[in-house]
Specification:
35% of the residues lie in helices and 9% in strands. It has 271 residues and is an alpha/beta fold. It has one domain: Rossmann fold (3-Layer(aba) Sandwich), CATH 3.40.50.620. Strands 4-3-2-5-8-6 form a six-stranded mixed sheet. A two-stranded antiparallel sheet has the order 1-7. The longest helix is centred in the middle third of the chain and has 16 residues. It is globular. The two termini are 33 Å apart.
Length: 271
């Protein structure tokens, strides 16, 4: 694929440098809505690589890839194939599996020497655990814990980003992601200053099978838990393997109904 020209473009003979620290201001809502209209039309049937190229063309290395699982590994591989540099970050909730840390390290070595890691605020975690114990999410729902361990760190991670790129798929979660567009305004993480955050979902039309075919063909690293029946992987206490025939999200927060199985990172995508 030809590399798109843009503010974050890299030279043809240069390997993509992940973790770029380029910054760019967010764009005003009226400008964003016009851009969104054009991109939605142009990218309606575009490939993930072309969507990534469009994101890079408009936002360069200031656009951020949020990294955590198999879909995000695929995004990094696709971006590397296209010679596109993006800022890459991940959220460490403090309760991840050891296998997840091994994947993060493997991807850091292969893709992103500048991988940024965001942790929850220690005081907030201390207050929650001191008041409610270690497993309050199994009593009063996971929203409070995820808000502290995921949503607040994500808000900090995105504070300086004009756009971010996720690995969401439409078939990923019943009732919440079926209508995920390839590009949108992220209302949940846009500010109140009249500017907005643009969100790209290059894998929206891909299935899990397509993701894994690409990972295998490209020989990309993956979480070892996938070989033990885990499909959707989050924090250790909230993740378990699934049985044949079960939807992948049935391995997450299994004590709650399917339509509530979102942690808040993609709150604006509920359909």
């Amino acid at each position: 694929m030809r590399q798109a020209a843009g503010p974050g473009a890299v030279g043809r003979d240069r390997v993509a440098c992940y973790g770029a620290r380029m910054t760019m201001p967010r764009i005003p809502r009226n400008q964003a809505e016009q851009l969104l209209s054009n991109l939605s039309r142009d990218l309606d049937l575009a490939s993930p690589a072309d969507i990534l190229t469009a994101a890079h063309h408009h936002f360069g290395g200031a656009a951020a890839i949020s990294f955590s699982g198999a879909e995000d590994v695929a995004l990094l591989g696709l971006a590397q194939d296209a010679g596109l540099d993006f800022r890459v970050f991940c959220l460490d909730t403090g309760r991840l599996h050891s296998e997840t840390y091994a994947l993060l390290q493997a991807c850091r070595e292969r893709f992103a020497n500048g991988l940024q890691v965001f942790f929850p605020q220690a005081t907030a975690v201390e207050q929650l655990v001191s008041a409610k114990g270690f497993y309050s999410f199994r009593i009063d729902g996971h929203s409070e814990c995820c808000g502290i361990r995921k949503v607040e760190p994500l808000r900090r991670a995105l504070a300086s980003a004009p756009a971010w790129i996720t690995g969401q798929r439409r078939d990923q979660s019943p009732g919440t992601r079926a209508q995920v567009p390839v590009v949108q305004i992220d209302e949940a993480f846009s500010g109140d200053d009249g500017t907005v955050l643009i969100k790209f979902n290059p894998l929206a039309r891909w299935s899990s099978s397509t993701v894994w075919k690409y990972i295998g063909a490209a020989q990309l690293p993956f979480n070892a838990l996938h070989e033990r029946g885990y499909v959707s992987i989050g924090c250790e206490p909230c993740t378990r393997p699934i049985l044949p025939g079960q939807h992948e999200r049935e391995g997450r927060w299994w004590w709650e109904e399917a339509t509530r199985k979102e942690c808040g990172l993609h709150a604006s995508d509920r359909s």
